[in-house]
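Intended use. Records like the one below are meant for learning the mapping from a protein sequence to its folded structure. Do not use them to infer anything beyond what is encoded.
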Amino acid sequence: MNYDDQIKLAQAIFSGAILDKNGYRGCPRCGSRNLTHDGCAPDEGYISCDICGYSISGNDPYEMVNRWNLLSRDSFQLKIVFD
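Structure written out for the chain above:
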């Protein structure tokens, strides 16, 4: 992916138009896509960033994904490709 394509992708993700392949947006604090989602506990589950530890919790896994994706994003991981 070239530089211009990455900029367009970043803009689309910031605007909420594009989610990752599993339906999650990156961490709102650090931008990482390395996430853990434990939504199978009977009482409470969580979505947590494996890099910075930011997390949310709740008792409905679908509602948690929706809340996670609606959080304001301060960061995005962009890999710049140098020719």
